[in-house]
Each structure stands twice: as C-alpha cells, then as structure tokens.
From TrEMBL:
Compositionally biased intervals (Basic and acidic residues): 401-418, 427-439
Positions of region (Disordered): 386-447
Identification of the protein by name: Protein kinase domain-containing protein
Protein species of origin: Sporothrix stenoceras
C-alpha cells in the first residue's frame, strides 16, 4: 500500500462571536501549506452526532482559551476535548491533504531540518499556499471539502514616517526580505507552528544566515505600535550602549519591497492614498535573540528558583534600567512579562514599545523615569516573594513532565509515514492555547 507523509498540526483558531451557529475557522498546517477549515452548525445539521461533537469543542474552546467557567464538571477536560477534536479533524481531512499537499515541502522535511541540510524561509510562513475548506456532513458521515485555493495574498503594508526611515538608514540598520531570512528550530516539530519567533540572518554578509534573531512581526494596521517601538530602539542605538547592557537591540527590519506600491482599500473598496511623508514597507523587526518563547520569560523561570537567583535578576533589572536612564532612554512597560532570562541566567529587558500595564505602572507615569522606577520596585517585590516561588507545586511539576511527554510524542509522529487510513494524530495544542490566552489578555488591556 502506498504511504503518504503527513505532517499536520492545528496552528490557529478563529472563533465566532458567540453563538454555536457562528462560523468557526480552524487552520491546519500540513506539509508546509495552510488549510483554513470553516465550520458552522448550518454545514453539519444533517448529522446530530457530528454537530454535538462540534458544539462540545466550542464549549471547550471558550473554557480553555478564554478561561470561562466550565459548563459541566463531568467528562474530559477542556484541553483533552480540544485535542480530541483536533485529532479527529486532521484525520477527517486526510483526503483533502492528500489531494493538495501530497508531499512535504523540502524545507519543512523534519529529517532535513534535523540534519541541517534544509530549513524553511520566513517567506514560506508569511506567504504560504492557502486552501479554503469546509466541514460538511451528510447522514452522520463527515464530508471534508476544499472549496478553492486562496488567491495570492497581498498583506496590509505598514508605512513609517520618512524621518524614521532616514534615521534607520543613518544608523545603518539593515533590511532583509522574507526570502533572505531563515527559520531556525531546535525541534523539527516547531516547523509546524503558526509563525516562528527565532530566525537567522546574514549580518556579516558572509553569504550564510548564521546570526540568531527574535522575530517580531507587524502585519498591517499596527503602524502606531511599530513606529513607537522603532523610535525606542533608535534611542537605544543612538545611545551607543556597551554590549554588556542587557537590553534587546534592533538588528534589522523585515522589508517587503515587493509590496511597496501595494495599496490598502477603504470600506468602499477604494484605494487608500498615503501621505508622501509615509514610506515603507516594514513587515517586522529583527531583535537580539535572548531565549526561546515561554520558557525564557522571567515569569516562567522564577518557579522553584532559589532566592539568590531571583535577587540577581532583580538587581540586573534595576542596573539595566539605571543605565538606560543615564543615556536618556525609558524602558516603558515595566513588568515581569517584559523580562527574559538567557542561557547564562542573566535577565534582559525586552519590549521598548512603551505603554503601561495596570498594577505595575500608573497610567499617568507611563513612559517616564518615575514610571520605570515604580515598575522596577514592583518587579523586585514580585521576585522576592519567597512564599510564592521557593517551592514548585505538584501541579506545576506535572505540567512540566506533561510538556516533555507531549514533545516526545510529537517527535515520534514527525518521524513516521502515515498510511491511507484513519490514524491517530497526536496533537500538541498547549502552545496554541497559551498563545491564544496571551492574545486574549493583551486585547483586554489595550485601549
């Protein structure tokens, strides 16, 4: 029997506004392509069993991602319900994957990534092949449909003021096209993520991208945040701080030259005319690489860390902020979530986008020296709360080992070839859920 290689994982959820009948979209990355699977009660009303399964998933989604109160106290947990539905959905759509993504793209092949002979490019994430799909049902049998390939997507372009672009050129901040930026993974399974956050660029013009950077994308509609953060990074670069000052720096920008002339449209579909003072197009920032994702955040590293280590981090945060202030630079949104810890247990300040977070900096002190010092004092108080951090709870230890087990299962899945039958697809939606919860919380605090 012919075997097919399926590397499939749910990477994004776009929930409806509220009712069970609202459209819900689940995006699956399979073999380097994206499949937007649209689901709604109206599509599957002919199958009570599938409709009930879909509705249980929606309830679990709301509980797991948005931390709503559980609807029932019996049966599987919200996370298990989501995982089970994702596994079933991927199995159901295998015929669609076979037809439109029969082979893994070379740069997404786990063996090639593991051996270092291939790696995806950022362009393959920003501009992938996208297929629009729909889940239907007839007489209790699921009908997976592909309704068409999405037309070539032109992203909304962020344009920045001409003076800011001139400052970037003055400071010789390099521009990199997405096709020049390689995506770096330690675990081949990370190739299935929605969007990478660790990339490699050719800083020294050696012809080979070998400098690790943190990728922070700004795709359309976020000009204000992009400009604010860029100005903060330019102040740091202008200050010519010593390399040992642990604050992330701007290494380069993601430059979308091919979309320089692309125009957005207003609500009536007419092209938007941009002022001559706005230039572009910037797709994102390439920043000093400190550590990987959630595990590198100070808020993750504190659990079980001894008081001496937490004291060191508090001192390092205060020392770095003091150095910034002497150079006339403000940190801005001072809070533990904006501190990362590197492999040598040193604390780094991240996020120079300004703003404030309630409970850490008063609104009227945002963006000031006084506000920074207020945040630093609260971070110190947070870190030295011995009763909170000295011991790791049994639940946290179980989460740690469960993460390890999930990674091992995913690794085994990536190595295997999947025959043409309904196979078990071990999905790992823990990272997805964390990202969705984080996005939800950020939305709540934005003005």
């Amino acid at each position: 029997m012919t075997k097919h290689h399926y590397l499939a994982k749910v990477v994004f959820e776009a929930p409806g506004a509220g009712d069970d009948d609202d459209l819900h979209q689940t995006t699956v990355r399979c073999n380097g392509r994206l499949f937007n699977i649209n689901m709604a009660a109206a599509y599957i009303h002919d199958s009570p069993a599938i409709l009930a399964r879909f509705q249980r998933f929606l309830l679990a989604q709301r509980e797991f991602v948005y931390e709503e109160d559980p609807v029932t106290y019996e049966g599987p947990s919200a996370e298990d319900e989501r995982n089970s539905f994702h596994q079933w959905l991927i199995t159901t759509f295998q015929p669609v994957f076979r037809a439109h993504a029969p082979d893994v793209l070379p740069s997404f092949d786990p063996d090639a990534i593991r051996s270092g002979t291939a790696r995806p490019l950022l362009a393959e994430y920003m501009f992938p092949q996208v297929f629009e799909c729909r889940l239907e049902a007839q007489r209790d049998k699921a009908r997976p449909l592909c309704v068409g390939k999405q037309a070539d997507w032109i992203p909304p372009v962020n344009r920045i003021p001409a003076d800011l672009l001139a400052d970037l050129d003055r400071l010789r901040v390099p521009r990199y096209a997405p096709s020049e930026i390689a995506v770096a993974f330690e675990n081949p399974g990370d190739a299935l993520r929605e969007m990478p956050n660790r990339v490699l660029v050719d800083v020294d013009c050696s012809g080979y991208p070998d400098t690790a950077c943190h990728l922070k994308l700004f795709l359309g509609g976020f000009e204000g945040s992009l400009v604010t953060e860029l100005r903060g990074h330019l102040r740091v670069l202008d200050a010519q701080l010593s390399a040992h000052v642990r604050v992330i720096r701007l290494v380069g920008i993601v430059w979308l030259e091919e979309y320089a002339d692309a125009s957005d449209k207003d609500k009536d579909g007419n092209p938007v005319t941009y002022p001559e003072s706005l230039l572009g197009p910037v797709g994102g920032l390439l920043l000093t690489y400190v550590s990987e994702g959630w595990d590198g955040l100070l808020t993750s590293r504190v659990w079980g860390s001894p008081p001496a280590m937490r004291r060191q981090w508090a001192d390092q945060v205060r020392e770095t902020v003091t150095t910034l202030h002497k150079a006339g630079v403000m940190w801005g949104d001072a809070k533990p979530e904006n501190v990362m810890v590197d492999g040598n247990n040193n604390a780094w300040l991240i996020d120079l986008g300004g703003g404030f977070t309630e409970g850490w900096v008063d609104e009227d002190k945002a963006g000031t020296k006084e506000g920074d010092l207020q945040g630093v004092a609260k971070i110190e108080e947070y870190l030295m709360d011995n009763d909170r951090f000295e011991m790791t709870s049994e639940d946290e230890q179980e989460d740690k080992y469960e993460d390890k087990r999930e990674s091992e299962r995913e690794f085994r899945e990536l190595r295997g070839d999947y025959e043409d039958r309904e196979d078990e697809h071990e999905g790992d939606s823990r990272d997805l859920g964390r990202e969705e919860r984080s996005m939800s919380k950020r939305r709540k605090i934005q003005p």
